[in-house]
Design a protein that fits this description.
With about 120 residues, the protein is an all-alpha fold. It is about 65% helix and about 0% strand. The chain is built from 4 helices and no strands. It is globular and about 50 Å long. The two termini are about 25 Å apart.
């Protein structure tokens, strides 16, 4: 794998996990739990979400070895006692991350198709 592909793979992973975790944090804040907001996690700044092993070491080793980039970020902490309706709100908070990733992927696909 060439250097440009490695950089692109790692950038795409960092972008995806940042949007994913920031969406969980944003949804938790909207549902009444300010815990993630207080920790600075409602942010698209990747530095707020980096986990040394899951965001740096493992993805780098995988990409250099020729495997697909895979990793994780620090999880967003949610205090269910702050939520207005804990059962329903936890569902929406959980769905926020994957929904953000699907939306970003669709937007990226549309951009690629328009630029062709």
């Amino acid at each position: 794998m060439d250097a440009l592909s490695i950089v692109f793979s790692l950038f795409a992973l960092l972008f995806a996990i940042t949007i994913h975790e920031a969406s969980h944090a944003w949804a938790a804040n909207r549902m009444g739990d300010p815990t993630a907001m207080g920790m600075g996690r409602v942010s698209l700044n990747p530095l707020a979400h980096i986990d040394p092993i899951g965001t740096v070491l493992l993805p780098l080793l995988l990409v250099v070895a020729g495997a697909p980039a895979f990793g994780w970020a620090k999880p967003v902490i949610v205090n269910p006692y702050n939520l207005r309706n804990p059962r329903r709100d936890n569902l929406w908070i959980s769905l926020a991350g994957p929904a953000a990733n699907i939306t970003a992927a669709a937007a990226g696909l549309i951009a690629i198709l328009l630029l062709r």
